[in-house]
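Annex B. Sample input.
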Amino acid sequence: MVMRASAPSYLGEGPHALWHVSEDPTITRFAPHRARTALTDEPLVWAVDTRHLPLYWFPRDCPRCTFWAGPRTTDADLARFLDGRRERRVHVIEEGWLERVRNARLYLYRLPAEPFLQDRETLGYWMSRAAVDPLELVGIDDLIGRHAKAGILLRAVTNLWPLWDAVIESTLEFSGIRLRNAVPRRVPGVS
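Annex B, continued. Sample output.
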């Protein structure tokens, strides 16, 4: 089993903690359930750690392509995708989502570490088989400014698919979230 390399740290990262991100500020308990996109039928509560929290600085359904260098990333891919900067993180959304990202308000629920185990396949993701009560609720907005302050490059493109296809064929580390909501792939020869 290959564990994906962790994303690099970001400016203002803060201490390790586990989080759930939502647009709903009224959640009082997270009960295990089977997520619609889950690869397992087991009911779980999912959390993301502080290092990977910026992957969720978007409205829930916003499709995004995120990537960074890992230990196996070649100099050619580093130059092509990251301007030669090994410490760079890039998040890319579609232009049609830019206004929603600009106006979004999110709620970060800090969760207790004790019931969670780290996902064996993806660094940064954690799961609990037990219900979890949040420890803290933090509201955030200005998601575009938050990316800039964290030193994470946020870009917008017309269609994610050409970039996504290039990224997954490269030697980069990556995460694609809610890609099913992206503008449909362009079919060659069809306008």
